């Protein structure tokens, strides 16, 4: 699978930067068309799944949504949820099925355009040129940790969610998890289920029920065409790209994450982090609102499903609606980190994108690529695997096959145009 990096050529028709599911999917299509190309991977195939997920991590979407091109999930549990090692094995098996020209351990240092119209790639194994480039490095590059972390007492261990592996990694004592997106809620649960004392700072992330009226909610939404909706037709338009995902889990065969239940069991819930002063962490007075909004988001999805069932005349069991089992008192809250024996903090507040190695005028004011379905403003430069590149599934296993097939068409058109010019 891994090509000897000493064999890098001076020129390729296409370079794919990134060897995750997006880059491999692009390589699959290029290989099928016998288009000369190379895939450069900074680390190892499946690196983020191997090295940036905790031990009990599993997918939150059913296995049947794993639809890499020519390699859909074919295991015994289509409605199960692959664990971390299974995800890595799936990616490795996909790559082995067509033997992509991957160079692992090769980092790209610069991408720029030359005066002759070719693109030059400088990497840790040398410099070469290409006609076209697919940037498939995703959108999560630099772990985000707010400056407020500098105010935390130095004896408290602080890590980003991408560094968390298991409860034993953190010192004995209570743990504060900051952020209630998918990672934050699942890590807080992982610590809680291991018997650790947990404080969770709850933000505005929405939640969703795992199952409703006899089926996984993902199954209903798929039938409703939710995952085929392009970003331009989404009610939030491009703003949806920056929104947190609904929290739910595939753990224990798949179930809800209900923070109110965890609070009844002893998990301490707070609002957003506001400040840290002299070892005291202050939280905003928004816990009630954040929990209510998360619940309402789940109920809104159920309303959509009810309407779909009624419209299509589907026979489905009735189900009682959600009733909150715990209510916070409201008001601002605070934790004296020392007095509460908080020995560790897990920051789960996302990542920042970084494309500073691309020396091309193709970014907006926030440094994010300007593109339509991955086609940038620079002919011959494409992006793949970004969240909501085209649909909800673009950054996941479910939609990357369609996105990469679309880019293949654009790449072929560009190659044909180049041949016409030189002939």
UniProtKB/TrEMBL annotation:
Q: Which GO terms describe its molecular function?
A: flavin adenine dinucleotide binding; monooxygenase activity
Highest taxon in the source lineage = Bacteria
Q: Output the Pfam families linked to this UniProt entry.
A: Pyr_redox_3 (PF13738)
Record has Oxidoreductase as a keyword? yes
In terms of InterPro entries, this protein maps to: Auxin_biosynth/cation_transpt (IPR050982), CHP04046_FMN-dependent (IPR024000), FAD/NAD-bd_sf (IPR036188)
Q: Has keyword Amino-acid biosynthesis?
A: no
Ranges in a coiled coil: none
Print the keywords alphabetically. Answer: Oxidoreductase
NCBIfam families per UniProt: MSMEG_0569_nitr (TIGR04046)
Name of the molecule in the record: MSMEG_0569 family flavin-dependent oxidoreductase
Name the species this protein comes from.
Limnobacter thiooxidans
């Amino acid at each position: 699978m891994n090509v000897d990096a000493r064999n890098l050529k001076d020129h390729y028709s296409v370079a794919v930067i990134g060897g995750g599911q997006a880059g491999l999917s692009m390589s699959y299509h290029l290989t099928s068309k016998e288009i000369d190309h190379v895939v450069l991977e900074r680390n190892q195939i499946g690196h983020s799944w191997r090295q940036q997920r905790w031990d009990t991590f599993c997918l939150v979407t059913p296995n049947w949504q794993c639809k890499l091109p020519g390699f859909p999930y074919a295991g015994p549990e289509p409605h199960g949820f692959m664990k971390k090692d299974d995800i890595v094995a799936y990616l490795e098996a996909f790559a082995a099925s067509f033997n992509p020209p991957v160079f692992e351990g090769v980092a790209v240092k610069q991408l720029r355009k030359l005066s002759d119209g070719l693109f030059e790639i400088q990497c840790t194994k040398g410099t070469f040129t290409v006609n076209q480039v697919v940037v498939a490095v995703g959108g999560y590059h630099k772990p985000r940790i707010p400056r407020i972390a500098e105010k935390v007492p130095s004896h408290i261990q602080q890590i980003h969610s991408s560094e968390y592996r298991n409860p034993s990694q953190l010192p004995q004592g209570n743990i504060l998890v900051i952020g209630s997106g998918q990672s934050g809620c699942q890590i807080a649960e992982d610590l809680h289920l291991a018997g650790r004392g947990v404080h969770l700072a709850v933000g505005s992330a929405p939640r969703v029920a795992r199952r409703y009226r006899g089926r996984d909610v993902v199954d209903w939404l798929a039938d409703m065409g939710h995952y085929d909706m392009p970003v331009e037709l989404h009610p939030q338009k491009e703003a949806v790209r920056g929104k947190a995902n609904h929290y739910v889990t595939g753990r224990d065969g798949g179930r809800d994450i209900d923070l109110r239940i965890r609070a009844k069991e002893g998990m301490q819930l707070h609002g957003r982090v506001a400040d840290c002063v002299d070892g005291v962490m202050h939280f905003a007075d928004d816990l009630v609102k954040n929990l209510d909004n998360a619940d309402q988001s789940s109920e809104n999805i159920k309303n959509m499903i009810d309407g779909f069932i009624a419209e299509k005349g589907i026979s489905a069991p009735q189900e009682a609606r959600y009733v909150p089992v715990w209510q916070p008192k409201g008001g601002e809250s605070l934790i004296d980190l020392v007095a509460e024996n908080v020995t560790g903090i897990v920051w789960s507040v996302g990542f920042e994108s970084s494309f500073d190695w691309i020396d091309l005028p193709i970014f907006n004011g926030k440094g994010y690529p300007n593109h339509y379905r991955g086609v940038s403003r620079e002919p011959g430069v494409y992006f793949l695997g970004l969240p909501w590149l085209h649909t909800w599934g673009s950054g996941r296993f479910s939609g990357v096959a369609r996105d990469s097939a679309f880019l293949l068409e654009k790449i072929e058109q560009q190659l044909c145009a180049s041949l016409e010019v030189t002939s």
